[in-house]
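Running this now, will post back.
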Amino acid sequence: MDRLNTFKKYVVWLIAFYLFSMLVSYIGLNARYNSIDSTGEVPGGIKIDLAQATSVNGRIFGEVTSTEGNELEGKYLKIDIFSKSNDLIGTKFLKLENINLDEPKKFAVYFQVENVKKYAINVIDSSEEIDKEIVKVNELYKEIFIDKDLKKWLIITLIVYALLFG
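Update: finished.
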């Protein structure tokens, strides 16, 4: 019975330490982000909630709303990121699909590159020429733009593996 109580205490301490370390990591990482500015007008139907970058990575969160006067279904959202000297660092295309009229749909773009100071967002019509450009751009900038959710689950899996088998 004593061993079971001791084991329970260790489990509780381990969970408490895990939660504390995740909280401190979250606060520490998010404190390093600084806002970045848009280089021009944000198109109608696009609302940017958050655009931030650190010295090594960044994120842009927003939402897209399609209206009768501004139909966005099937178009592309083109996001360019720039350095302080206005040099293009990377381009990301997001296909706007399953957008209902007057219903906002959230989007997120994560990038992993140094010294991003500005961004630009444009809405582009779909065409064969654009589809070919998207393939080239995705290959060219595949190391810059990342899928944050995948990395988050990978980190959680590694932590659990280390705790169980380390």
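The beta strands are 34-35, 37-38, 46-53, 58-64, 76-82, 88-95, 105-111, 118-124, 145-146. More later if anyone needs it.
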